[in-house]
Amino acid sequence: MIKKVAINTLKYGSLLLWSFVIFFPLITLFFGSFKTYNEFTNTSGLVPPVDFFNFENYKRAFVEGKMLMGFVNTFILILLGVGGSILLGSMVAYVINRFDFKFKKMILFAYLLVSIVPLEITQVGTFKLIHKLGLYNSLWAPTIIYLGADVLMVYIYLQALDKVPKELDKAALLEGASYLQIYRKVIFPLLKPATATIALLKMIAIYNDFYIPYLYMPGEKLNTVSTTIYRFVGPNQTEWHVISAAIIMSMIPMLILFFILQKYIYQGITAGSIR
């Protein structure tokens, strides 16, 4: 009995401790978003603000940071990047799953190898290519980079395709359908859970990305949500209270999207991990 109580105490105690570690930054951000500069610098992060109705930081973050423009540019990148990566990823997985050819394993190995290499290492060559194409300082630069389908996308789609009977392909071929028609009218509609999972994971990745937009879109009118927040970082003074408000506002769209599609994330990640 004593052993069981000790185990439960340790289990739930560790969960509470880990929950505090996770929520501590969020609580600090929420409280800090309502504080003035002096209040933020002179009080602890866990001390509530004097006035919870002080929305000046939110106003400054939205107006001075041009967050509306940041949201628009970010969602354009999400629309193009997610759509393109879903199309490419599902097509690659369809070809690998349904056809036998000589270098199939080499293609999968190449995807895995690329995922191991850090993104920053390849940026010298990528930057030169983007600059020569005349796409630097435009929305097309990060869009082309985001179009690529990574190994996680391919494996999630491969796992989903394993559950689609190949007899459907044969039946469609007998009806005179081409392979492209089979993919478009038979295969892709059956991959909705995997597509929803990949779309949400890709959305979050693009939405939170700072490195690519900051490197390839330095123009003032081409800011994204992440680079908007960086506007309040200065050489002499960083306005953390305004940054806190900007971060809170930037979290809202992704939180709403996550709660709507969270069941697809768990299903897709679990399916992809089995493979």
What summary fits the major beta sheet? none
Task: State the distance separating the first and last CA atoms.
Answer: 41 Å
* Oligomer class: single chain
Q: What CATH first level of the largest domain would be assigned?
A: Mainly Alpha
Q: Can you give the helix content as a percent range?
A: over 70%
The fourth-level CATH homologous superfamily of the largest domain is MetI-like
SS elements, strand count: 0
Number of helices: 14
Cα Rg: 23 Å
Low-confidence stretches: none
What are the secondary-structure elements, in order, as H or E?
HHHHHHHHHHHHHH
Question: Structural class from helices and strands?
Answer: mainly alpha
How much of the sequence is in beta strands? Answer: under 5%
Give an overview of the whole structure.
With 275 residues, this protein is an all-alpha fold. It folds into two domains: 1-63, no CATH class; 67-274, MetI-like (MetI-like fold). Helix content is 72%, strand content 0%. It has helices spanning 2-32, 37-42, 56-63, 67-98, 104-116, 123-132, 140-146, 151-162, 167-174, 179-187, 192-208, 211-216, 225-229, 240-274. It is globular. The model has no long low-confidence stretch (mean pLDDT 84).
List keywords for this structure.
2 domains; 275 residues; MetI-like fold; 14 helices
What's the helix and strand layout?
Elements lengths: L1 H31 L4 H6 L13 H8 L3 H32 L5 H13 L6 H10 L7 H7 L4 H12 L4 H8 L4 H9 L4 H17 L2 H6 L8 H5 L10 H35 L1
Helix pairs in contact: 1-14, 3-14, 4-7, 4-8, 4-11, 8-11, 8-14, 9-10, 11-14
